[in-house]
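Worked Example 4.2. Consider the chain below.
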Amino acid sequence: MDDIPLIFDPVTGNYHRITRAGEVVLTYLDGTRTRDDLVAFFSRDDGARAEALARQIDTFLAALDNSGLLEGSEPPDTPQNGSRVRTSMLMPRIILTRSLLPRVLEPLAAALRAMPAKPLVLIAVLGALCGYAFGFHTLFTATPPPQNLAGPAFLLATGVMLLYVLLHETAHAVVAQTLGTPVRGLGVALLFYFMPVAYVDRTDAYRHRGRGGRVLLAMAGILSDGWFCALSGVVALNSAGLLRDTAALLLGMQLLMLIINLNPLMPSDGYTALEAAIGLTNARGRAFALLRHSLRRQELPAHLANLSKAARRVHMAYGLFSVAYVCLLAYAMLRAIPVTVDLALSAVGR
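Applying the procedure from the previous section yields the following structure tokens:
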């Protein structure tokens, strides 16, 4: 990825970033050499150099072992083809299907590959921007009275929004399939254990060489949402009664979805696109690991201990802002529960 070597573990399906020096050492881990053989080979009988190399090789081998990458070491995660339920990254996830999407989407992806890429992307971006502008202008200038948004309008808007979310995730899958890195599965998750979201597992986007393609893959859902936002705006302006109320409420939901998807303080599409654009890898993971080890007063692992003081401060600040944002979001959602319950109850006449 961006010429950074990665180890792919076929047992868990995980990727592990390594250094160029680590990549060289890996070529000698063929089962015929001991740890002492490696130290002697790389130090070339230089005693002073051998001591420093021994520490570096020990650290590298320990990291491989902890990641389950050495013969006989325990895998740290659920195997890729194991249970459909996973709880890593503070996000319980349930995979609904692993193989359906790539098979269904390949004909469409093949047709997209045959088209000129740059004009296609330009049309998608401009259409999304115009769609958002038109839809949200309609939301703020032609919104019906709040009492009209309760009852059936709320239920209908919620149902359509679930469909939009599915199409949002399908857009990611289409781009991934077009780039030759099919998604691993489609599922649902509870972000930080309280926010339900749909998702597609696009881990293998790391295999795509080129930041532009990975940025487009991350933004595909947001771009598709812009087109659907325009559709909601057209319906809201050219209808009346229940249909208009439903479309207006749907525009409000789409605005909230855009804010969440662009937020760089969460594992959102905006964060993923930012990572791809500037070449970061797992900045959130490092930030939360630093916070966790600092609070527990634990020794930092090698990949964190090697960060400069300035980089540590930036990661710590980012982690603290992320935690604060999640707490604010959780508070807002808790405050919104009574309103949501009232809207749902009004739909059934209670």
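Residues 282-350 form one domain. The mean pLDDT is 84. Compare this with Example 4.1 before moving on.
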